[in-house]
Amino acid sequence: MVFLRAALIFILSAAAHGAERLSPPAGFMQPPEHRAAKAVNCPAAPAPFTGVLDFQSKYAGSDSARATLNPEADATFRQQTKPITDMERFVSRQVTAWAQSGNPSNVTCVVNALAGWASAGALTGDAKNHTGRSMRKWALATFSSAWLQLQDSPQHPLRAYPAEQANIERWLSTLGDLTISEWHDLPRSKVNNHSYWAAWAIMATAVVTQRRDLFTDALDIYRTAMQQIDQDGFLPNELRRRQRAFSYHNYAIQPLVMIALFARANGVDPEAGNHDALRRLGDQVIDGFTDAQPFAQKTGVTQDMSFLQHPTNLAWLEGWCQLYSCDDALRQRIVHLRPLQNTRLGGDLSHLLATTARQE
């Protein structure tokens, strides 16, 4: 039934394509930079993952805080999910390379790869556990946010691939329905960073497929997130992660910033929720970069700050400075880290968002 619903909605959406078109933020519609083109390396794409989405959690054996990494379980998780994460990197790298050079060979490479996964019905199998559902929505976030950059470019690089484009977008629509069925309407006590990432995947897919129903569903989850942010800018469900509470606040805000940018691009005020709760959350996280003591006081334990060693975890700041004014100290932090890239947020966010960042 999910597949039939997706096909019918896709057809109806295509018929209404010209009415109130959903748009990504302007940065996703940029032409490529046309830097000096390198020879295109298009390796063989990972084989489509068509199996059951049943994966080991990297926190297996941890207590209810789910904050103690199990190295053996983590190794198993990485091995089991390698075909999916390899495909995410493959797609993101090819789209980023195209954005830098404008080389049509990169487009051919990513179109053929995604068309192969679409034709095989990859990632549409049963999700047997939370980790399986998580992998589906993370992959969808990567594929849809990358595809948008080709779909909405003024160069129209997909014109040469009408059949493949239709096939890929039908498949993304199906994955969107599966993601909605797994992450929408959860009890509020269960809504946390995973739901926010699902909402971001759904939002990007809504714009790809021009599906207003998905757009509305993504906003529903976003608004729930805004209501979860307390007056001090904390997320109670992320504070449960004890020593990783600060890390998970940083992780939770990443998709919320992207949803806010896409909402604003389509006439929805992202600051309206719970008295601009997103700003409170962002300010608390940003202040934590220099002083994480408030998180330690809330949880009663010293915070694990290791996530700050990986710039991909700070790529959302490019979007933050587009939503809100950033002071000189934060702008300098970002400049020294560029280019900031995050595969699941769209790839090179410095390219996509930095040119339109707000200034004080």
Automatic annotation (TrEMBL):
| Signal peptide from the UniProt entry | 1-18
SUPFAM superfamilies cross-referenced by the UniProt entry: Chondroitin AC/alginate lyase
GO MF assignments: lyase activity
The record's listing under InterPro entries reads: Alginate_lyase_dom, Chondroitin_lyas
Q: Which UniProt keywords apply?
A: Lyase, Signal
Gene3D superfamilies reported for this sequence: Chondroitin AC/alginate lyase (1.50.10.100)
Q: Where is the Alginate lyase domain positioned along the sequence?
A: 54-295
Top-level taxon: Bacteria
Q: What is this protein called?
A: Mannuronate-specific alginate lyase
